[in-house]
């Protein structure tokens, strides 16, 4: 009974004394605050800074839309391929890689000799052609000599006719004088006959003499006319002889010119010289002396040069430009005036930075793979397939011409000139917007589409 009573009292009594409860409930010094560790404040500060930075980034930051394409450097005036005109053996190379040549300068000598049982065919043909040439020269000399001899004879005959004409003129003058004297004598005899001093028979005799003199004068004048006709005929023969000789010489010269052409062609069959069609720098020499060359095979490439108006009046190499080739999905928004950031494969941009350029032209129609430049097609297609995601090697490409800001790169303290044919990657800067504009662009697009 006592145990149960004790247990009942212990259950009903509080855990703490009433004094403790009263002391805790008064709290006359204020509420209890636990000390916070410094890491909490640091986290809060960092979170606030990140929030502010994010807001600033969204407000003031921008994003650039770029089109990544591949390309290659080419001279502004293009390349000139030097091809062999016919098959043969390369016997001599007059230039080496990097030489600057002038228009018409000999670059290569190509041997095209052929042999048969009698010897080298070209030499045999050359001997026959020289014989024909000697025959033509002899024939020309003989015709000139014969024409000169005939001309001398005709000129001598013409001189004799002139002398004879002068003599006839003197005889005509004398005949006219005698006729005048005879007429005066007739007049005197007529007067004397009227006076009865002479007979009529004497007067008639004088008249007959006058008639004979008139007849002789007429004959002389007729001979004079015939002599003049002969002179004109001889002079015509001389002129005809000159024209005939000129015609014959023209025919002989034409035959000699044709023969010279055959000789030149035959010499070309023996060995041909390949010359530079334009001034420039020789690059990409593909063959060595002694190698067999096929007709139309490219032996070298010339990069044209132009005269520049610099202080030294020197000849400088033409500036290079970049040709980018982009598929249709990339070339849609590319236009002239856009900035281009270039990464040359030969000069890693991680070390040497990006090079700047400007789009100056975009082709209106694409180039099929077989329409690309022959010496660049494989390089262009290979680079595009490696660097452009989803590129199809059979897809047509648009050509984008880019003007370079600089023609060289500063590499390890030295200026390295950009060379033709260097492969590269480029980013065409198409659009630059604020980040918040990119975020709300779908909303703006929906708004614009919903607007009437």
Automatic annotation (TrEMBL):
Residues 151-178, 203-269 form a coiled coil. InterPro entries: MdtA-like_BSH, MFP, Single_hybrid_motif. Keywords: Coiled coil, Membrane, Transmembrane, Transmembrane helix. Residues 85-303 form the Multidrug resistance protein MdtA-like barrel-sandwich hybrid domain. Pfam families: BSH_RND. It comes from the Bacteria. The chain crosses the membrane at residues 38-60. PANTHER family: EXPORTED PROTEIN, MEMBRANE FUSION SUBUNIT OF EMRAB-TOLC MULTIDRUG EFFLUX PUMP. This is HlyD family efflux transporter periplasmic adaptor subunit. It comes from Undibacterium baiyunense. The lineage of its organism: Bacteria, Pseudomonadati, Pseudomonadota, Betaproteobacteria, Burkholderiales.
